[in-house]
Amino acid sequence: MATSNIEDFEKGNAAFVEAFDQDTTGALAIPPQRKALVLACMDARLHPEKVLGLEIGDAHVVRNAGGRASADALRSIAISQRLLGTQEVVVIHHTDCGMLTFKDDDIRSKIRDELGDSAGDAADGIAFLPFSDLEASVKADIRIIKEAAIVDGDVPVHGFVYDVTTGRLNPVN
Amino acid sequence: MATSNIEDFEKGNAAFVEAFDQDTTGALAIPPQRKALVLACMDARLHPEKVLGLEIGDAHVVRNAGGRASADALRSIAISQRLLGTQEVVVIHHTDCGMLTFKDDDIRSKIRDELGDSAGDAADGIAFLPFSDLEASVKADIRIIKEAAIVDGDVPVHGFVYDVTTGRLNPVN
């Protein structure tokens, strides 16, 4: 087992608290200032706020493996739109994504081999949502969001591929 | 419909690209340097990387409405652990969370009223995962992660409540 990062995270948070402005940042209301929601991959090299120039309070950020429009992402988008007033969605996938490197059967076998048969049986029933074409995956997720019953059909949905080697967001049209 | 943010986001990205170091940041490998995964709420006031002092490349970040251990979050955690070597999970919920302000029936009615009956019918089948007690929701999600078949049972799972008025992470034990 790795040494825990918790001490470092607590030190990182102490420095953040030291610089935190309670009168401005600490007084922000719940609804995102820019009325936007970003759906992005969990990848460690993609910090959506930095990449888009978002300040604290600007936008909802939903992230998962791949930045996929999963049922859970749609749940989050519906809550964001109906209860907190967001009116725009930005989908960000990225180059060199781990989701390009495997198929469902690969991770199911790996789970069975490393965690045992009951884990393997559970994994056999799960779609892990890998993909083989970046632009196609962005387009597929935009379509899922636009067509989802619980998502507002009038809200624009934009797509980008983030290049992890240059920091650049390339639009997907 | 709101004016689109896209022009501003593209300007924000251009500034980010300008400052991006391709030799260091651009050369990072896929696996998170700190072998950690953070599961946090999508709230606009919670920037997990800033709050924890995470650099680009340090950790996977999974986010959804509430920072809940949904089936999709477990999918992401399994991919992170089995394919990309993370060995620690940090769950972050936060004060003044939107998820404290409604029940499933409230959002289902709102979706039906604002998006129509077919949207309402779809919403009736969805658990939106609101909660009424912050520490209890963190503990519940830690338990779900620890007990999930597809998650490595030996991996430590830590919990925090982020105070949006002070920037402080308060541990949940």
From TrEMBL, chains A, B:
Q: Which domain of life is it from?
A: Eukaryota
Q: Among its keywords, does the record have Cell wall biogenesis/degradation?
A: no
- Record-listed Zn(2+) binding positions: C41, D43, H94, C97
An example Pfam family from this entry, by short name, is Pro_CA
Co-factor note (free text): Binds 1 zinc ion per subunit.
| UniProt keywords, alphabetically | Lyase, Metal-binding, Zinc
Q: What class of enzyme is it?
A: lyase
Q: Which cofactor does it need?
A: Zn(2+)
Q: Answer yes or no on keyword NADP.
A: no
- EC number, UniProt record: 4.2.1.1
Q: What is the catalytic activity of this protein? A: hydrogencarbonate + H(+) = CO2 + H2O
Q: GO molecular function terms here?
A: carbonate dehydratase activity; zinc ion binding
InterPro entries referenced in this protein's UniProt entry, alphabetically? Carbonic_anhydrase, Carbonic_anhydrase_sf
Functional note: Reversible hydration of carbon dioxide.
By sequence similarity, the record places it as follows:
Belongs to the beta-class carbonic anhydrase family.
Q: Can you name this protein?
A: Carbonic anhydrase
